[in-house]
Amino acid sequence: MKNLFKRLKPISGFSHYFHVGLNILLPIVVLILVRLNFIEISVFVIILSKWRMFAVKPRFWPANIRANSVDIIVGISTIVFMVESSNSWWQILWAVIYGIWLVIIKPAETPFLVSVQSLVAQLFGLMAIYSWSSANNLELTLLTGIVCFLSARHFFDNFDEPHARLMSYTWGYFGAGLGWILSYWLLFYGSIAQPTLILTIIGYSIASLYYLQKKNRLNSLLQKQFIIIMVIVILAILAFGIIRLGDNIA
């Protein structure tokens, strides 16, 4: 009986495989619900899977919600992608990607993979927001700011950054401001909106510079290369957008 109790403890192999099994089951359940057009229920299942956020005293809820925010963003974004997918194979592919997130990426605790979590959450979140065709400018602005803030906070907390809150709010305000300006000039490159592309490039560049600096691998030459490439790519995107806008007006 004592050996059985040890095998059932959370640190045991049995518990680990049971937890992995639940993580594999979740994307399947979400896929089935989306296929049955139970979209609201699939969102509820995502939130329900994070029930442990509320298994503590209420004063800890905000911190727990923030800590689990990137996982919630990726989960709900995946539902949006499934709904927007043109056929069942794309929906299955998104379910597989979500399973990889739950089993491999989300449980990781290394600085690099936690940084990847932040970047994936921001990319998925922004892609989902700008696929919402009926959203107005205010909704796009607020949601863009929230996704940018939560992704940045997850990233900076990974390094125990003393100014994590200030830097996260700054990035959130920047994302919201850019989203508000470009919402009046909303262009798409395939399925990716211009604000998503620009914020992803800038966010990836800044995060890479910060990560390299924390690892003592950043030098002036590498810093200049990142900045120059980032500026060139953003100017190219804006120039292409202006050309497309001129063609549409003509």
Describe the protein:
Strand 1 and strand 2 form a beta hairpin. The N terminus is likely disordered. Helix 2 runs antiparallel to helix 3 and helix 2 packs antiparallel against helix 6. The chain has 11 helices and 2 strands, in the order αααααααααββαα. It has a domain of 142 residues. The chain is mainly α and 250 residues long. It has a two-stranded antiparallel ribbon with strand order 1-2.
Supply the key terms.
2% strand; disordered N terminus; two-stranded antiparallel ribbon; single chain; globular; 76% helix; mainly alpha; 250 residues
Task: Give a brief outline of the structure.
This protein is an all-alpha fold and 250 residues long. It has a domain at 108-249. It has helices at 2-7, 13-35, 39-48, 61-67, 69-84, 88-105, 111-129, 137-157, 164-182, 194-214, 220-249, and strands at 188-189, 192-193.
